[in-house]
Specification:
Layout lengths: L6 H4 L6 E2 L11 H16 L3 H21 L7 E4 L2 H9 L8 E6 L4 H12 L3 E6 L7 H9 L4 E7 L12 H8 L3 E7 L19 E5 L11 E4 L46 H15 L4 H21 L10 E2 L9 E5 L3 H13 L2 E2 L1 E3 L2 E5 L6 H11 L6
Parallel strand pairs: 1-11, 3-4, 3-5, 5-6, 6-7
Antiparallel strand pairs: 2-8, 7-8, 9-10, 10-13, 12-13
Helix pairs in contact: 2-8, 3-8, 9-11
Length: about 400
């Protein structure tokens, strides 16, 4: 149905099945045209391009993101090359010598978990970590931990990268947790442009991190932070010259100023190509009346076709016993099999690769990602190749 949008990527993948759409999603052809537009804008405007980017390209991207998330404050969307950059900037809103109390989970992506472990090593943070498994009791355990004290930072993913488990009733969860911390951060990278999200009722209480690399099909370098308007009083000490871009010429050099909206969390000079690509993708969606719900239903149908075959399969590894999946829950756009150890996972990944099936392996978990680039023919081809996997 949508495969014709990806002809440039598909021309190089005639015999390989890429089921890593949760990580390396194909880019639609319009992104190539967008990259050329940026080059020509640079040639046309030279040093005047930044004024155009900040007055036209970035506001358009802010509107697209706000529309997809039903977010009422597009001016509060801040861009950066990575979520890590934005995360560190948020942490820097606290006094440099303050020991931070943090509540989080054992299933956060490396950009946060690695940084937090390093801060713990320096004894700059005191961290409470809640296990996400078993999933059925996760939210109750997280609430219990949150109610033990007031935290500086509460951080958790909407959809967890190592399982696909998605926190249900996000609005209710945010409402209950927001009073228990100074800053509440949700990693929305695996839900943005994949799972319908409505932030309208919680926009004043949450910092939402996401980006274009995965389901937004926009590639690297286009991550963003949605910050509540009350955050416009914060003064991060990790700051760059774009954080006061609108008043740069008028600023008093003796006082560090910040823009009066989300741009205060910006850094410095960056490559805006990813924002051009993101705009091109969401222009394409808008022109074709594609919503996040459209994408989610497409992927759900593909997953169900895959799962129906798995349910009758007798493979010792790719089976329901190892599948991290709760059928009655909204789930991420990838399916995860939790195996006995990382060596088994690695060997299975190698066996799949020999069949020209690309998946990824994280520790002892192997993930199959489904996206808009796929159709039922891809699923059928995948299932045919899986039947050729060795049993032992």
């Amino acid at each position: 149905m949508y495969k014709h949008w990806y002809q440039q990527f598909n021309q190089y993948q005639t015999d390989t099945l890429w089921f890593t759409a949760h990580s390396h999603h194909f880019w639609p052809d319009v992104t190539l045209q967008a990259m050329m537009r940026y080059w020509h804008d640079s040639a046309r405007l030279v040093d005047d391009k930044w004024q155009y980017i900040f007055s036209s390209i970035i506001p358009k991207a802010q509107r697209h993101i706000s529309r997809l998330l039903n977010y009422p404050y597009p001016e509060q969307v801040t861009f950066a090359p990575s979520t890590h950059e934005l995360l560190v900037r948020l942490i820097s809103c606290f006094p440099a010598r303050k020991k931070l109390t943090v509540l989080t989970t054992d299933s956060e992506f490396y950009s946060f978990s690695r940084q937090l472990k390093r801060l713990n090593e320096e004894k700059w943070t005191e961290t409470t970590v809640v296990n996400t498994e078993p999933f059925n009791g996760f939210i109750e355990r997280f609430y219990q931990a949150a109610n033990t004290k007031k935290y500086d930072i509460i951080f958790f993913s909407h959809t967890f990268f190592n399982s696909g488990y998605t926190v249900q009733n996000l609005n209710e969860v945010i409402e209950k947790l927001s009073s228990q911390c100074s800053i509440l951060i949700v990693d929305g990278y695996h839900s943005f442009a994949a799972i319908p999200v409505d932030l309208s009722e919680i926009a004043n209480n949450v910092f939402f991190l996401a980006g274009g690399y995965k389901y937004a099909q926009s590639g690297e370098g286009c991550c963003f932070l949605l910050s509540p308007p009350k955050a416009n009083q914060l003064r991060p000490w990790n700051t760059g010259w774009f954080a006061n871009f609108s008043q740069l010429e008028e600023s008093d050099s003796s006082v560090i100023g910040y823009d009066s909206h989300g741009q205060r969390f910006a850094g410095a000079t960056f490559d805006p190509t990813g924002i051009y690509r993101l705009n091109a993708v969401f222009d394409l969606w808008q022109e074709n009346k594609i919503t996040v719900e459209t994408v989610h239903q497409h992927v759900f149908a593909l997953q169900q076709a895959f799962l129906q075959s798995i349910s009758t399969s007798k493979h010792p590894l790719l089976n329901y016993r190892n599948l991290l999946y709760i059928p009655e829950y909204v789930h991420g756009h990838f399916l995860t099999f939790k195996l006995a150890d990382r060596e088994i996972c690695k060997n299975l990944s190698i066996a799949l690769n020999s069949l020209k099936v690309k998946v990824d392996c994280r520790d002892n978990r192997i993930r199959f990602g489904f996206g808009l680039q796929h159709d039922l023919d891809d699923i059928n081809q995948l299932l045919v190749r899986l039947k050729r996997l060795p049993i032992a």
